[in-house]
Amino acid sequence: MRPTVHRIPDALLARLRQRAEAKHWNGHTEKRIGRTDVLADFRTVYTAGPDSDPEDVILGRCLATLVSAGHIRLMRGKRADGELLPPGIHLLPIGPAPAKDVRRGELLHPDLYPLVRDRPRVTETQRVAYRAISNWLHSLPGPADSVLNVPLRERAFEIFGKREYVSFFPEPEKCLDYGGFGGPLFSDPAKLYRLIRAFPTNPPLLNALFTQGRIRDRCTSFSGGDVLLVVENSATYTSLVMRLQEVEHRIGCVAWGVGWSFRSSVLSIRTHHNANGHERRRELREIRYFGDLDASGLTIPAKASAAAVEVQLPPVLPTPVLYRELIRLGTPLPGRESTEQDDAEIMASWLNDSRSFSHVVDTLVKGERWAQEAIGLSHLTTNDEWLADMQ
């Protein structure tokens, strides 16, 4: 028997939870369910009559009711013209995570255990974080103090950027920002940084080359190059600058893209950097970009490129080797953006290599992403092939 109209939201919620539990949802973390599955579950509890409102209107009302009641939140992402439904939903937790005794749990790495043993009870997130750090320490070929010190977000992605941790750390590269998860380890940043061999990076300020005497030590404007390299995220920016100070290359300046603002800031190259006091010794011949492989990370440079060409600047081009290495070394994980097939194909076309990046489209459609922090200082210092993008 079908539920009455006013009970449809409750019936839909029950079906969504059944689906989540069938996929081992534990009930104390969020669970992502895509639009196709939401619609399928809705059709099991509702059948339209001859005078009913359109199906997507009824479902939209049900979802709004569940949002108001605190049972779900809607997934963010681009919708097609006229599309009323979100890309999917997140089931919200139905109960708190159980506290566990770290002394009765799994064995922790000897370098980690002394730092957390005096805390008898930990949250579920802390417990998973301890396990992830312990596993990372065990995976090292030697003692941790022999490992290269790298930007914090790169190390965070290396430790937590695995599918088994997605429900706890949906953006693993950012999970140690602002103190992590509390407790004896994460409340002491200096202790944590020593343990995992990482350092925090401050977001850089964009800069111009005002004098020729401060290039190598403090300024990200390099002498004599004719390539502008724009980097989406600040940790990767820091690693690339550190490495570029040690090798020969054509890069004249490294800039932090600052997310979506690059669509407009690219125009300042013409309005500011060719003015008096900002003259360069060599003309800027190329603009290269390296960012996350997701919907935003591909749309930003494509729109910036169109804006640049309109004012007679070079187009914004990808860094193919870096992107290929990102796919080879990184792990695609669920993101916050879901993309339709046609849109994904347009986004991926900016990469200019359909053979090498054919699976990018499928990944975008699934709502997954490669975070650029997977290409970190450790890789950049052992491999110079990525410089071929700028030769």
From the helix content, strand content and strand pairing, which structural class follows? alpha/beta
N-C termini distance:
69 Å
The secondary-structure element order is HEHHEEEHEHEHHHEEHEHHEHEHEHHEH
Shape: flat
Which residues form runs of ≥5 with pLDDT under 50? 99-103, 207-219, 275-281
Average of per-residue pLDDT values: 82
Radius of gyration: 24 Å
Strand portion, in percent? 5-15%
Individual helix count: 16
**Main sheet characteristics:** 4 strands, parallel
Which strand order do you get reading across the main beta sheet? 9-8-10-11
Helix content: 25-40%
How many beta-strand runs?
A: 13
What do these coordinates show?
This protein has helices at residues 8-22, 35-45, 55-68, 113-116, 124-139, 152-160, 183-186, 189-196, 234-244, 262-265, 268-271, 295-310, 320-329, 341-349, 358-365, 377-380, and strands spanning 31-34, 72-74, 88-91, 100-101, 121-122, 150-151, 198-199, 227-231, 251-256, 286-290, 316-318, 333-334, 368-369. The strands form five sheets. Strands 9-8-10-11 form a four-stranded parallel beta sheet. The N and C termini lie far apart (69 Å). It is built from 16 helices and 13 strands. The radius of gyration is 24 Å and the shape is flat. With 391 residues, the protein is of the alpha/beta class.
Main attributes?
391 residues; alpha/beta; three-stranded antiparallel beta sheet; 16 helices; 38% helix
Compact description:
By secondary structure, this protein is of the alpha/beta class.
Secondary structure topology:
Elements: H1 8-22, E1 31-34, H2 35-45, H3 55-68, E2 72-74, E3 88-91, E4 100-101, H4 113-116, E5 121-122, H5 124-139, E6 150-151, H6 152-160, H7 183-186, H8 189-196, E7 198-199, E8 227-231, H9 234-244, E9 251-256, H10 262-265, H11 268-271, E10 286-290, H12 295-310, E11 316-318, H13 320-329, E12 333-334, H14 341-349, H15 358-365, E13 368-369, H16 377-380
Parallel strand pairs: 6-7, 8-9, 8-10, 10-11
Antiparallel strand pairs: 1-3, 2-3, 4-5, 12-13
Helix pairs in contact: 1-2, 1-3, 14-15
